[in-house]
Amino acid sequence: MVTDRATPHEPRDLTEPRDLTPLEERLRALAGSVPDPELPVITLDELGVLRDLRVTGPGRVEVDLTPTYTGCPAVEAMSADIERVLHGEGVPDVEVRTVLSPAWTTDAISAEGKRKLAEFGVAPPRPSGPDGPIPVQLAIRCPHCGSTDTTLLSRFSSTACKALRRCDACREPFDHFKELL
User: Fold this and answer.
1) To the nearest 10°, the Cα dihedral for 39, 154, 128, 66?
2) Which of 14, 81, 90, 115 lies deepest, with the highest CB count within 10 Å?
């Protein structure tokens, strides 16, 4: 049975890091290692959607998950996968809560996550600048050949958070993970 110091859940600022107990750190690493159901090359931690994990009592864990957008159909699969992993680690009572504020942005994707997206053939989102979102006129780099000579084919691709583009240099189509800032 999983036990640790119980911490009552209080609303808190999710943008501020919180000290985790060793057990919470271990369980968060396990939950964070769950692959994204739509892009299994990247984990929920690398995607930046796993916001918090708290041990709230003996054998009881609460997980805060922020979807990439409010209508994301993958959030149910993410929640079920987190529950399965934590049940497998001996946590009998797991509650995964969807937290919409603060909203997820593509800046939450880790550098490793962006590297994996590009390696997988998905152009990663560009970072926002110090003064907000990046101008729309910047080119999207092809993940296959590196050219910035690309054309938007469709604002939506295999998922609503990606756009379909084609490289005009190598002629290969590719997904671009759209910037959500």
Assistant:
1) -40
2) 81
